[in-house]
């Protein structure tokens, strides 16, 4: 049998709501069409793909990401005219881990990213795991009455004031004022049809959620709290214990994630890029 890139790839689903480990491929090499289609299909099916032993330079990381679509610029970097598409999450003794609550990246943009990609550069000897939640299963697990209630609702997304204050400290008034002016709060459907499969996902993002539009403040807060509660249920999660040079790619439309900060004060360094996405929508027949 002739060996091809595809014939060497092995995909093993995790014993969890989502996630699969992929082996037999060196992500420094370009993927041929068949291998790329296989990995895209696995990503659509399993939502998070884990690859061990992928020691990617920033350029190789970007080249890998670019096979999945146009790469996203960080909104602050683009206001500063930077073409940089790679960024780093660096936890040190002086700069503790951010420990953001559950989120899908940059959901406050009108077109949030489609995929996130992390490559672990330096990993502490313990702690610092990342957990992803399956927003398809979360929607499926709601009672028909609650599904009916949330379908068609819109959730307003916006960074917390602290984010803009931090940008102001680091980048000054002009950039911050433009960032705020160019990114007014955005409303996304609370139930989102997946852009590839059409499958409905509960598009929650506690980090950036303000309120559900059209409900009283109280009703919005209580409905959001009851939905957000489910994110902590391990039945909907996959948890990844990082090793150096792991690469993980995930679907931002059907997952939220959060990184634990229990490695503090030990050093952790991640290299990250994201692939651009489209405006979230909900279609009743999905
Ligand atoms: C994040 O987006 O919260 C970072 C994920 C990680 O560092 O594992």
TrEMBL record:
InterPro entries in the cross-refs: AtsK-like, TauD-like_sf, TauD/TfdA-like
Pfam families per record: TauD
Segments forming domain TauD/TfdA-like: 17-273
Keywords from the UniProt entry: Dioxygenase, Iron, Metal-binding, Oxidoreductase
Example GO BP: sulfur compound metabolic process
GO-annotated cellular components: cytoplasm
Entry GO MF terms: metal ion binding; taurine dioxygenase activity
Gene3D superfamilies in the cross-refs: Clavaminate synthase-like (3.60.130.10)
Family: Belongs to the TfdA dioxygenase family.
PANTHER family in the record: ALPHA-KETOGLUTARATE-DEPENDENT SULFONATE DIOXYGENASE
Name of the featured protein: Unannotated protein
């Amino acid at each position: 049998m002739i060996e091809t890139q595809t014939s060497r790839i092995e995909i093993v689903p995790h014993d969890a709501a989502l996630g699969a480990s992929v082996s037999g491929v060196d992500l420094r090499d370009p993927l041929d069409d068949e291998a790329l289609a296989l990995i895209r299909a696995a990503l659509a099916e399993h939502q998070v793909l884990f690859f061990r032993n992928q020691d990617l330079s920033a350029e190789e990381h970007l080249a890998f990401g670019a096979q999945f679509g146009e790469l996203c610029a960080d909104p602050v970097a683009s206001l500063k005219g930077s073409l940089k598409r790679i960024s780093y999450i660096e936890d040190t003794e002086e700069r503790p881990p951010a420990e953001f609550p559950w989120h899908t990246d940059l959901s406050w943009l009108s077109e949030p990213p489609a995929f996130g990609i992390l490559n672990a550069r330096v990993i502490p000897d313990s702690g610092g795991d990342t957990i992803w939640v399956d927003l398809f299963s979360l929607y499926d697990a709601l009672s028909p009455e609650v599904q009916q209630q949330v379908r068609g609702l819109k959730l307003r997304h916006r960074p917390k004031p602290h984010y803009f204050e931090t940008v102001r400290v680091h980048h000054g008034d002009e950039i911050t004022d433009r960032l705020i002016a160019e990114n007014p709060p955005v409303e996304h459907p609370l139930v989102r049809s997946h852009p590839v499969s059409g499958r409905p996902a509960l598009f929650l993002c506690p980090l950036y959620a303000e309120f559900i539009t059209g409900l009283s403040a109280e009703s919005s807060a209580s409905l959001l709290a009851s939905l957000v509660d489910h994110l902590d249920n391990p039945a909907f999660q996959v948890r990844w214990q990082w090793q150096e040079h792991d690469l993980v790619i995930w679907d931002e439309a059907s997952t939220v994630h959060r990184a634990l900060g229990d490695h503090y004060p030990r050093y952790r360094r991640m290299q990250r890029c994201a692939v651009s996405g489209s405006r979230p929508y909900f279609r009743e027949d999905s």
